[in-house]
## 1
Amino acid sequence: MITEKIHEILKIGFPGDDVYVGPMRGASDDHLEIVVTSKKFEGLGLLEQHQLVMDLLKEEFKDQLHAVKIKTKLA
Amino acid sequence: MSENPFKIANPSLNQDHVDKVSNEIPSGFDETDTIKRIEKIISSHPLVVFMKGNSFFPQCGFSANTVGMLTQLNAEFKTYDILRDPELRQSIKDFSNWPTFPQVYHNGKLLGGNDIMNELYQSGELKNLLS
């Protein structure tokens, strides 16, 4: 399933970090909510933080993934 | 800060934040030309929203939400309907390093997508930024 796949991709991109991937409330399966808590975000602006996450999902957006809601937190 | 009044009740009703590679793109289009157009658009106004549809008829819940927040703040902005421009729609994803819409440009720089706009709106930063 797409949720597991995205989780796996983010876990590889953010090794050892806290990664949550779940369905977006009231939306179809290809809409996901993502929360990543990482030290990698330190010193980065909001845009750069989100870009780190988005970058990993680029290929998925071409195919199975339609929309994500991203929340980044500093570990 | 209070709850964002423009939260999308049901984003699945708004199919078109979907951004699959469209097959509408004619092969062999000149990408440098499209990049030039993007640069021209983002420098033409301090606040530009690349979105699906326009302020009056947004074609996607996320685009609608972003435009709603900007309207709420009385911001002056320009919108660009990427649904009407498949070439630009494709190129700007690479240009911005951002795969979805809306994309908000402020003073020629990418400010973010809808999630970032939500965070900036709720923290009050967006208001400061635009005033």
## 2
Amino acid sequence: MSKIGLIIGREYLTRVKKKTFIILTILTPILLAALIAVPLLLSYVKSSEVKSIAVSDASGIYFNRLKNSEQYHFIPAKESFDTYKQKAKDDQGIYACLVINGNLNTDSSAQVSLYSREQIEMELKSFVSSQLENLVRDDKINSYNIPGLKQIIEESNPGISLNTIKWDKNGDEKESSSELAMIIGLICTTVIYIFIFAYGAMVMNGVIEEKSNRIVEVIVSSVKPFDLMMGKIIGIALVGLTQVLLWIVLIGGIIGITSLAMKDSVSPEKMEQISMEMIDQQGIHPSNISAIQASGMPGATNSEMESTDRAGNIIKMISNINIGEIGFWFILYFLGGYLLYASLFAAVGSAIDNQEDSAQFTMPLTIVVLFALYAGMYSASNPNGPLAMWCSMIPFTSPIVMMVRLPFGVPLWQLLVSFGLLVITFMLTTKIASKIYRTGILMYGKKPSYKELWKWLTYKN
Amino acid sequence: MYPLEAKNLVKAYANHLALDNVSLKVPEQKIYGLLGPNGAGKTTLIRIINNITAPDSGSILWQGRPLQSSDIANIGYMPEERGLYKKMKVGEQALYLARLKGLSKNDAKIRLKYWFEKFDITSWSDKKLEELSKGMQQKIQFIITVLHEPKLLIFDEPFSGFDPVNAQLLKEEILFLRDKGATVLFSTHNMSSVEEICDEISLINKSKVVLEGNVGQIRQQYAKGVYRLVANESRLTEQTGKNYDILSQTIQDNKIHLRLQKKTGIKTGTLLKELSEQFDIRSFEEEIPSMNDIFIQTVQQ
């Protein structure tokens, strides 16, 4: 037992003391924060720059009703269109030129065009078109000469905000957010997915290193191959946990500092709006989930935002999602999933002499893990459907898929069955892997076939 | 009682039999050579002794009782393919590997200091292994093998990769350790080193022990009654003897060099008597085959 401790110690310390580990661990949250903070700051900075749009309004009925925004100012076109065109070459003067060549309601040939020396910004395009649309609609409504028609139309278009409320076992009502549950689930799923791959590969490379260094023969003359394999797997698991914990601390610190710094410069409403926009745009995309985690949700828990109703609601919703329960199962599935795959990666590492040969054997693992990730993604929109249900039971996919379902609430019996199956399977794979491992680490030369791997399983040693 | 005994070991791999009923007895405080061509099964045998792999049948006895996994603390093993962690500091990994053998941290440090000073390499302790030359790495490997003062030392091809100076150093260390009480088992192709330091050998060929015993006795056993004679004589001789046939003769510096085959059933004394009557003998010796000749002869049979 003390020998396993020694091995775990070495595996852990040599990795944690590495410069690349330290740099990566510190830089990743900072880069993530920069990824969020830079667009946020830019969007704030942008509004201070005023762009002028010259309006040439042939109908004469629109210009006076166009409203300026912070960013865009409408000015009457004092010069001819050609002059502006000429000026554009000198890179001076107005940003864009809006040409309305007639009454858009009555004149069927009337057109609106926006000219600029640059590619027109999406924001400006939608700003102008929505204003003009409103004006044209108002004119149209007025042209019917029905008193109060505008008010009638507005009243008939009420707009509903749908509250989602979850009943718990006692019949109590809880305000829930399926979006929020989805996001939390996807964050957990992605973290487990990344962890299985990155650290599984680390186990594999560690085994290959020992094998190609030939030190493995010296070590297995002192300890059992199984101890060496488990020591490596556990040591690397600790490295992963250390990294995740450091990231949580660092991200928390960065959020704390930035939210303090931003308190004065960005209004809570704006921050809220930006983070919600980001969630709307990117919520389903895995690569951005951690980004949202870093900016959106914890940002919304900032005490500064309690003043607004919406932020208050989000806090209520977060507190209604059982963080403790999710955290508990997250760690269990995190470890279970890692142990299941790490032992298989160790077996792969033992069977080959160098990394280039790994593809043949890691491919099946990659396919299963990728399938699990996609099953998780699809399950997010239907967390209690058959795909989600089955994939959260099958041990090879359950660590990834169950995470998506957890925030929506999973019956305890399902969790127990699923986790029980996972434990049984990882004990089985560890046993199988250790058999391949102890034969594989002493075999050099030719890359084995699957048939030979099968034979190794039956060796007595 | 032998410190190490292998009894009827059989080990089969997928396509071939690596060991076929192999038995050997390694006597206490002797240097035991394990000889054999490539692929004969030496490494498999060594791995079984080291408890790295298990035999299909047969057993290893340690001090007369079956070998247990706790006994490996008494074995020091230097594999043919040397290997250590390239990116780890020399001192750190020596300490780590010694502790894996069951040494306490303090003991390991004290012994490490002794050996580093003995080899005059204390300054390397903080260097990464990859920064050292191959010869230096070999020394480190040797130190790691003997650090926990094992009763049984196993060297697989110890001299491969060593330059002559370091090979000599290693030879002396092995003899020194034997004199201090260790039993040494080593496998090699290098037959001159066998003659120099081995007390006993086993020759394994095609998974079987084909020859075993004391080195001197084996060589004597393979002697075929061939003698070398040098006598004062400036011309080739046309003599024929009752007790011998001349195999070859040359003249050098007014001396005749003869290789003689003694006839069967004749005593050496009788032969010498006949020769002394015929020649003015300067020297006379029996031609004992080298281990190299025995090796080749046995393996090619």
